[in-house]
Amino acid sequence: MASLPKRIIKETERLVSDPVPGITAEPHDDNLRYFSVTIEGPEGSPYEHGIFDLELFLPDDYPMESPKVRFLTKIYHPNIDRLGRICLDVLKTNWSPALQIRTVLLSIQALLASPNPNDPLANDVAEDWIKNETGAIATAKEWTQKYAQAKE
């Protein structure tokens, strides 16, 4: 395996030495571009008490190209589809090489705190969210309990 760029080494060291509250990101031993990530559901959100597993992969062109991130834990969220793909501007059109892994993870955590049904990836969930927000939030809480190793 080719050696890692200094930037990835630095970012990885910082994630370990100065972790983001509620987020862990650890590189795999056999592929240091591939991270196992956990994000705690933000307080006051339907995802509170949940621990969500994600995978994050740094493509060869990183940081010119955004990291690839996806939820492995099932989640009921208008901006995250059944395959765990995430609709988030910093992963797509607003990616900039100035951003870092931790910025992306913080943005995902913020997305959990404030779902945006007006820019959906999961159209059925977004529709539900718009028509019956209370019901959608209840479903999100239920899925969090069921799938996100929720701890009370």
TrEMBL record:
<dbReference type="Pfam" id="PF00179">
    <property type="entry name" value="UQ_con"/>
</dbReference>
<dbReference type="GO" id="GO:0031371">
    <property type="term" value="C:ubiquitin conjugating enzyme complex"/>
</dbReference>
<keyword id="KW-0808">Transferase</keyword>
<dbReference type="GO" id="GO:0000209">
    <property type="term" value="P:protein polyubiquitination"/>
</dbReference>
<dbReference type="GO" id="GO:0005634">
    <property type="term" value="C:nucleus"/>
</dbReference>
<dbReference type="GO" id="GO:0006301">
    <property type="term" value="P:DNA damage tolerance"/>
</dbReference>
<dbReference type="InterPro" id="IPR016135">
    <property type="entry name" value="UBQ-conjugating_enzyme/RWD"/>
</dbReference>
<keyword id="KW-0833">Ubl conjugation pathway</keyword>
<dbReference type="GO" id="GO:0061631">
    <property type="term" value="F:ubiquitin conjugating enzyme activity"/>
</dbReference>
<keyword id="KW-0067">ATP-binding</keyword>
<dbReference type="GO" id="GO:0010994">
    <property type="term" value="P:free ubiquitin chain polymerization"/>
</dbReference>
<dbReference type="InterPro" id="IPR000608">
    <property type="entry name" value="UBC"/>
</dbReference>
<protein>
    <recommendedName>
        <fullName>E2 ubiquitin-conjugating enzyme</fullName>
        <ecNumber>2.3.2.23</ecNumber>
    </recommendedName>
</protein>
<dbReference type="GO" id="GO:0005524">
    <property type="term" value="F:ATP binding"/>
</dbReference>
<dbReference type="GO" id="GO:0000329">
    <property type="term" value="C:fungal-type vacuole membrane"/>
</dbReference>
<keyword id="KW-0547">Nucleotide-binding</keyword>
<dbReference type="GO" id="GO:0044395">
    <property type="term" value="P:protein targeting to vacuolar membrane"/>
</dbReference>
<comment type="similarity">
    <text>Belongs to the ubiquitin-conjugating enzyme family.</text>
</comment>
<feature type="domain" description="UBC core">
    <location>
        <begin position="3"/>
        <end position="149"/>
    </location>
</feature>
<dbReference type="InterPro" id="IPR023313">
    <property type="entry name" value="UBQ-conjugating_AS"/>
</dbReference>
<feature type="active site" description="Glycyl thioester intermediate">
    <location>
        <position position="87"/>
    </location>
</feature>
